[in-house]
Design goal:
Length: about 160
């Protein structure tokens, strides 16, 4: 008998700088707990919380600001499995099911990675073409799908 996999409900933010739409710079950050793992800000959805509420809360917790404007969202939830080493840390979940949002930083937003529990040690804005080069391997297929969708829809 095969056990059913458990996926953690999660939100993720593809952040473009406040220069958007004149310049398309995408925010990526380096995790503190996984070597050389660049990713978009993301986090779990708490019980009773909507995906949008979780998005704003997670941005405040991870990058020190929730001063963003939601431009659009990916139309479906996307799922991926954790690699073995990370799966142990994230027990009882086998992976995550995520809702992706494309957000623009407001001009007055200030990014601060020195949050209560820092998840990132550094960040940078990269071009669309560079974004996938930096992203950690196990998230790349989902990120590619999301970025291609936002590009196809005329956002990136």
């Amino acid at each position: 008998m095969e056990l059913k996999k458990r996926y953690r409900p999660n939100v993720a933010a593809v952040i473009v700088s406040s220069k958007y739409p004149f310049e398309c710079e995408i925010f990526i950050a380096l995790r503190t707990d996984i070597e050389n793992a660049w990713q978009f800000p993301q986090g779990g959805i708490d019980e009773g919380e909507s995906a949008k509420e979780a998005l704003y809360r997670e941005l405040k917790e991870e990058i020190g600001t929730d001063e963003v404007e939601i431009l659009t969202e990916y139309p479906e939830w996307l799922t991926y499995d954790f690699p073995g080493k990370i799966a142990k840390k994230m027990y009882p979940y086998d992976g995550q099911t995520q809702k992706y949002f494309l957000v623009r930083l407001k001009p007055e937003a200030t990014i601060n990675l020195q949050t209560k529990v820092p998840e990132f040690s550094e960040y940078k804005f990269v071009s669309y073409a560079e974004a996938l080069e930096h992203i950690t391997y196990f998230k790349r297929p989902v990120y590619k799908k999301v970025l291609e969708y936002f590009k196809q829809e005329g956002y990136l």
